[in-house]
Write a structure and sequence with these properties.
The two termini are 49 Å apart. The chain has 420 residues and is α+β, with helices and mostly antiparallel strands. Helix 13 packs antiparallel against helix 14. The protein has a five-stranded mixed sheet. Strand 5 and strand 6 form a beta hairpin. Helices cover 38% and strands 21% of the residues.
Length: 420
């Protein structure tokens, strides 16, 4: 058996934990730079606010309907997510964190010793009591069916109490006939269009297709999904694997026109990539730098370029990667354009203890202990306390966040104080 636990309207729920006056009021959370809507409370959904709605276009609607608007507070959301996951890990040793607000729990054999309905209810009550975050729990014999069960639990909260179990054939068939094909986990937009074209509109209809046809017309991935939906355990928990590439990209709060402004941003992005490399004990052999002009400004000339450079040696040194990234930037930068986005992507990894030395040029060995010291200082005293001189010394990320809530759980200055 598998359980899929999903936090209800997670970002909005995190804001409500510390602002109970917002309960039952419409809330939307905006993306980086307050660009578009990335999360909505049920009340905001009922008012017809679509996902991805551009904030500037809906500003009057927000005001007219008294919708509470928040900038994305990822420090708060990440910490609250970890608290939820820590609680859920008490219910099984086998857990897969699928996203910031979702995780799979493997409950194989638990049905012989526990009433799973009560087990799920206990999870809901404890998470709500300890964190203030409401969750929905779907339990079934396979991962994909637990996803379906979770949708039912969330859709019909009053009837299910937030927990729904697909534990027999009648429930499985009823659920699959209810679920639209475009809402099936793992069926993307393009596949759903293709399936609609041949008359497949529900999850049940998808499971009736011939195996050979599914594999030939789609892939082995869709075939495994079909079998999992049929109740044949095919998809197991996935282990966290080291990344094969690491990207740090941002859209700027304003248009950048000078190379000096971009050097500061590219240096900061390279620093972030280097830190992530060291966390997985890896070094990179190449990196990509890209810059994009503002495509929304049709009145301005457009210019988009990227470049991949092979490094002379594998490294995860902040100093060395920032230097190479700036060199790459200078090769593609052109004066006379308004740049709105840039990024650094490191790739071609090797493990830190398996670096091939070259005859003429290698990474500075002094940087190994230096980076360890810097990482430890940043952990002890806060994000990016130690920075390169080429970085902005006041802010780590330059983002428009006009409606940012306090970081209640991650910043001492923002902790709620109780007055007696």
């Amino acid at each position: 058996m598998f359980a899929l636990v999903d936090c209800n309207n997670f970002y909005a729920s995190c804001e409500r934990v510390f602002r109970p006056d917002l309960n039952e009021k419409p809330i939307v959370v905006l993306s980086n730079n307050d660009g578009c809507v990335i999360a909505r409370s049920n009340e905001a959904k009922a008012l017809g606010i679509p996902m991805g709605a551009p904030a500037f276009e809906y500003e009057k609607i927000f005001q007219q309907n008294n919708i509470q608007v928040f900038s994305a507070n990822f420090a708060l959301y990440g910490d609250m997510s970890q608290r939820v996951m820590n609680i859920l890990s008490e219910y099984t040793p086998n857990i897969e964190m699928y996203s910031i607000d979702e995780c799979f729990l493997q409950l194989t054999g638990f049905d012989a010793h526990f009433n799973l309905q009560q087990y799920g209810n206990t999870m809901c009550k404890k998470v709500l009591q300890y964190t203030g975050i409401p969750i929905s729990v779907g339990i079934a014999t396979t991962k994909s069916l637990s996803k379906v069960a979770n949708k039912i639990a969330k859709k019909y909260t009053k009837q299910t109490g937030g927990v729904y179990i697909i534990d027999n054939e009648e429930k499985r068939l009823k659920a699959l006939k209810w679920l639209k094909i475009e809402d099936v986990w793992g069926i993307g937009r393009q596949h759903s269009k293709r399936l609609h074209a041949i008359g497949i509109t529900t999850a049940f209809a998808f499971t009736q297709l011939d195996n050979a046809y599914v594999q030939k017309q789609f892939s082995i991935v869709e075939l495994r999904l079909k079998q999992d939906l049929q109740g044949i355990p095919t998809l197991g928990l996935e282990e966290v694997q080291a990344k094969k590439s690491i990207a740090t990209t941002r859209t700027f709060e304003n248009n950048y026109t000078t190379v000096e402004e971009l050097i500061e941003r590219i240096s900061t992005f390279a620093v972030s990539c280097a830190e992530k490399l060291r966390k997985q004990n890896a070094c990179c052999n190449s990196l990509m730098v890209f810059i994009h002009s503002n495509r929304h400004r049709k009145d301005l000339p457009q210019y988009n370029r990227s470049i991949v450079i092979k490094l002379p040696f594998a490294t995860n040194s902040t100093i060395e990667l920032a230097k190479f990234a700036v060199q790459a930037l200078k090769l593609i930068f052109k004066q006379g354009y308004a740049y709105k986005k840039a990024g650094v992507i490191v790739q071609d990894f090797v493990t830190e203890n398996n670096i091939q030395q070259t005859l003429f040029e290698n990474r500075n060995p002094k940087h190994i202990s230096l980076m360890k010291a810097i990482d430890q200082l940043n952990v002890n005293f806060g994000q990016q306390k130690i920075r390169l001189a080429s970085q902005d010394q006041k802010r780590v990320w330059k983002m428009k966040q006009e409606k940012l809530s306090p970081r209640y759980t991650t910043n001492l200055a923002d902790i709620i104080t109780v007055h007696t």
